[in-house]
Write a structure and sequence with these properties.
Blueprint: H1 2-13, E1 33-41, E2 48-57, E3 63-69, E4 75-84, E5 87-95, E6 101-111, E7 117-124, E8 129-137, E9 143-150, E10 156-164, E11 170-177, E12 183-192, E13 195-201, E14 207-215, E15 221-228, E16 233-243
Antiparallel strand pairs: 1-2, 1-16, 2-3, 3-4, 4-5, 5-6, 6-7, 7-8, 8-9, 9-10, 10-11, 11-12, 12-13, 13-14, 14-15, 15-16
Length: 244
C-alpha cells in the first residue's frame, strides 16, 4: 500500500514529467514500455485530435525523453534525462510557435536511499541557480512538506495532509499554504476495478471537476476522462504504447 499512496500523490500533483508508474502495475508483466503517447480525443467519437505528449524510456524503465506538444501537435518543449546514481539531470528546451528555441534550462533531482526525490534544483542556461525545492516525507512515504526557494526571494512553503479509510485506502489529499494555512487544493479518490476517479475541489471546498483514469490488466493507463462539476465530459485522452 505504501507504493500505491506515493503514486497517487504524484498523480494528484500532476507531475507530468515524472517516471511512468501507476497503482495497478503488475510486477510480473513481461512487456517493457519503450514509448508512451498521450492523445487528445473527441469526447463523443473517440477520434484522435492531437498529440499531447510522448515519453521515451530505456530498457531499465527510466524516462529518457519527454516531448510536449501544443494543440496543433507542434513541439512545445522537450526534456532529456541523464542518470548518475541517485541524481537525475533534466535538460528542458522550450520552443516558440515557429519552432525556434525560446529558452533552455536544467533541473537536478536528488534521491535518498528510499528512491524518494528530496531536492530539486533549477538552473538557467548559464548554470545559475534559479529555484530550489526541498521535499519531506512522512513515515508512509507520502510527501508531507515542500519548500520552494526562489532567486527573487518569493519563497513558497506547502504542507500535505492525508485522510485514510477503515481499510487503509487513501481517501483524500489536501494541500495548504504554510504561511497562512490557506487551502490550496483538495482531491478525493474513488476506487473501482482498474479505475481511479480523482474528484477536485477549489479553495472554497466547492466541487471543481473530476478525472477518471482507466488502466489495462498490466497497469498501463488506457483512458483519462475529465468532467466539469455538472458531470459533463470536457476532455478525453487516450494512451498508446510501444514496447521493447
Amino acid at each position: 500500500m505504501k507504493n500505491l499512496y506515493s503514486i497517487l500523490i504524484f498523480l494528484f500533483l500532476l507531475n507530468s514529467c515524472g517516471e511512468f508508474s501507476n497503482p495497478f502495475t503488475d510486477p510480473n508483466q513481461v512487456k517493457q514500455v519503450k514509448t508512451q503517447t498521450k492523445y487528445l480525443v473527441d469526447s463523443q467519437t473517440d477520434a484522435e485530435i492531437s498529440i499531447v505528449f510522448e515519453k521515451h524510456y530505456n530498457i531499465n524503465g527510466e524516462l529518457i525523453t519527454y516531448i510536449l506538444f501544443d494543440e496543433k501537435s507542434n513541439k512545445k518543449s522537450e526534456s532529456n534525462y541523464e542518470y548518475d546514481g541517485k541524481v537525475k539531470i533534466e535538460e528542458v528546451i522550450e520552443y516558440k510557435t515557429n519552432g525556434d528555441t525560446a529558452t533552455i534550462y536544467n533541473k537536478k533531482y536528488k534521491q535518498n536511499s528510499e528512491g524518494q526525490i528530496y531536492e530539486i534544483e533549477k538552473f538557467d542556461k548559464n548554470g545559475e541557480l534559479q529555484e530550489k525545492s526541498k521535499i519531506k516525507y512522512d513515515n508512509l512515504g507520502n510527501i508531507s512538506e515542500e519548500v520552494i526557494q526562489k532567486k527573487n526571494g518569493l519563497n513558497e512553503s506547502k504542507s500535505y495532509d492525508y485522510n485514510y479509510g477503515n481499510n487503509g485506502e487513501l481517501n483524500s489529499i489536501s494541500v495548504k499554504d504554510n504561511s497562512d494555512g490557506r487551502l490550496l487544493k483538495k482531491d478525493s479518490l474513488v476506487y473501482s476495478n482498474q479505475k481511479i476517479e480523482l474528484i477536485s475541489y477549489d479553495v472554497n471546498g466547492e466541487l471543481s471537476h473530476s478525472q477518471q483514469t482507466n488502466y489495462d490488466e498490466n497497469g498501463l493507463i488506457l483512458l483519462e476522462t475529465k468532467k466539469d462539476k455538472s458531470g459533463k465530459v470536457i476532455e478525453k485522452y487516450r494512451y498508446k504504447y510501444k514496447y521493447f
